[in-house]
Amino acid sequence: MRIAFMGTPDFAVPTLDALVAAGHEIAAVYCQPPSRAGRGKALHPSPVQARAEALGLAVRHPVSLRDAEAQAAFAALGLDVAVVAAYGLILPPPILAAPRAGCLNVHGSLLPRWRGAAPVQRAILAGDPATGITIMQMERGLDTGPMLATIETPIDRKTAGELTGELAQAGAALMVEVLAELSAYRPVAQPETGVTYAAKIDKAEARIDFGQSAEQVERQVRAFNPAPGAWFEHAGERIRILACDVLDHHASTAPGELIDDQMAIACGSGAIRPTRVQRAGKAAMSAAELLRGFSIARGTRLG
Question: What is the pTM of this model?
Answer without folding.
Answer: 0.95
